[in-house]
Amino acid sequence: MFIVHFFPFTTHSIIEIQRNVQPFPFILQQKTPLAELLQNFNEFLNRKSELINKLARFFFLIININSSLM
């Protein structure tokens, strides 16, 4: 039961972090280690939020199937 209530908040938090950590465009245009690090971090957060969204959809699908069988 705890996981059911906690999971949407986790998904929302990671998506908000991903939105708020968008690096400045002029930093990304430079070919510096900082720009590369920020770009990699941004891509990592994008992949992480996509994975969590897919897991959340799967998890809620299982819950719906389980509740419909009861």
Describe this entry's structure for a reader.
Helix content is 87%, strand content 0%. The longest helix has 37 residues. The chain is built from three helices and no strands. By secondary structure, the protein is mainly α. Helix 1 packs antiparallel against helix 3. It comes from Bacillus luti. This is Pullulanase.
List keywords for this structure.
Pullulanase; 87% helix; 70 residues; disordered N terminus; mainly alpha
Short description:
The chain has three helices and no strands.
How do the helices and strands line up, and which of them pair or pack?
Layout: H1 2-20, H2 25-29, H3 33-69
Helix pairs in contact: 1-3
Extended strand count? 0
Mean pLDDT: 70
The first-to-last residue Cα distance is 16 Å
**Structural class based on helices, strands and sheet pairing:** mainly alpha
CA gyration radius, whole angstroms: 17 Å
Relative strand content? under 5%
Described by strand count, sense and barrel closure, the largest sheet is: none
